[in-house]
Amino acid sequence: MLVGCPAEIKPQEYRVGLTPAAAQELVRAGQEVLVQTGAGAGSGFEDAQYMQAGATLAETAAEVFARADMIVKVKEPQAVERKQLRAGQVLFTYLHLAPDPEQTRDLLDSGVTAIAYETVTDRAGGLPLLAPMSEVAGRLAPQMGAWTLQKANGGRGVLMGGVPGVGPANVVVIGGGVVGTHAARIAAGMGADVTVLDLSLPRLRYLDDMFSQHFRTGYASAARTAELVAQADMVIGAVLVPGAAAPKLLSRAQLADMKPGAVLVDVAIDQGGCFETSRATTHADPIYVVDGIMHYCVANMPGAVARTSTIALGNATMPFMLALANKGWRQACADDPHLLAGVNTHAGHLTYGAVGKALGLDVMAPEAALKTA
Ligand SMILES: NC(=O)c1ccc[n+]([C@@H]2O[C@H](COP(=O)([O-])OP(=O)(O)OC[C@H]3O[C@@H](n4cnc5c(N)ncnc54)[C@H](O)[C@@H]3O)[C@@H](O)[C@H]2O)c1
User: Per-residue DSSP letters for 2-56?
Assistant: First the structure.
């Protein structure tokens, strides 16, 4: 199989779908790899590293799209890329089709077999290709929050770890899933006094068993949340209700109860945000103030650390990508129901239930798609 990796073209996207290490694994497995010149530059990978790995370079994205049997990317294909996809070709990348009827239509029209990172599952009921980006965003959240807390950046001027004789910052993390757990670990590691709130008692039990030395847990009732937020120097929003917009857990009126210059880091902003006053920002202009409270609401936080994110994503996608390349998508998906769960479109058929429901389109079961031409 010829596996192709074009450069990402979405603004401020510095990640790349294939690392030199992944390219080498594919070549070792007997596959051919074609990478667009400069595709890895934003993540610190040079063309020479891909060539050493055994890949061939292509001058243009058009060549990659024209020749590859499977396209490996990071972000959903943009309109100009979608025009170059075709039936019989496999696309392996993040898609997020439910809110995107235009992209869905184009993928169906192209006939491509599109496998979405975000809907591939694992045995524990998790989303293994989404988790690495949640880990990155979670670990980054206290780092960005700490920077925002600095006086010159508009914050309260509080040091996360305090110093002998001066107490540490008080950090509240709402939502103790992947993002929340990693955020709490890093905030605690920086010396802050951390409490994680969640509505799931099994999750709180797990966090208490694993991390009671490092941070406290609390039940996320409205009353307890309001009480803790009023005392906080930093609040990290990390909730997720799968398939739904993030619930609003902090109203504008509650900002008046907070300490002036306190920081809200809303990681859940990609699902609409969990604070009433959140609106999505970019790395170029990440923070803004409402009623004296600092807001950091960057929707693609992993992009700030493109190299770490690319390598983390590559580690997670590698086994699936190898299976797809070595066995062909049909056999790979027949052998692995978790990979089959990633198939969103095939030969003009929509094959993912939640997308069909969101867009009012007919859906073919992915098992049935395996049997079609
Ligand atoms: N901004 C970014 O760059 C970025 C990057 C990665 C992930 N995210 C987002 O971060 C959010 C969290 O992702 P995750 O992977 O940690 O999800 P997750 O499913 O692992 O964890 C979510 C947690 O929220 C808890 N929860 C749900 N409703 C709650 C409520 N009302 N109060 C308290 N807790 C509640 C759940 O019990 C669960 O433990 C998602 O919206 C995700 O899309 C954003």
Answer: EEEEPPP-STT----S--HHHHHHHHHTT-EEEEETTTTGGGT--HHHHHHTT-E
Closest-CA residue, ligand 1 atom 28, reads: 239
Give yes or no: 270 in active site: yes
Residue tagged active-site, from 106, 198, 266, 270: 270
Is this model's pTM higher than 0.85 or not? yes
pLDDT at 243 over 70: no
CA-to-CA separations, 104 to 109, 155, 299, in angstroms, rounded: 9, 42, 22
For ligand 1, say whether the CB of 134 is within 6 Å of any of its atoms. Answer: yes
Residues 36-73: pLDDT tens digits? Answer: 999 999 999 999 999 999 999 999 999 999 999 999 99
Dihedrals φ, ψ of 321, to 5°?
A: -65, -40
Q: Of the candidates 146, 142, 141, 357, which has an alpha carbon nearest to the alpha carbon of residue 269?
A: 141
C-alpha closest to that of 116 among 291, 350, 369, 363: 350
Give me 216's structure tokens: 């406290």
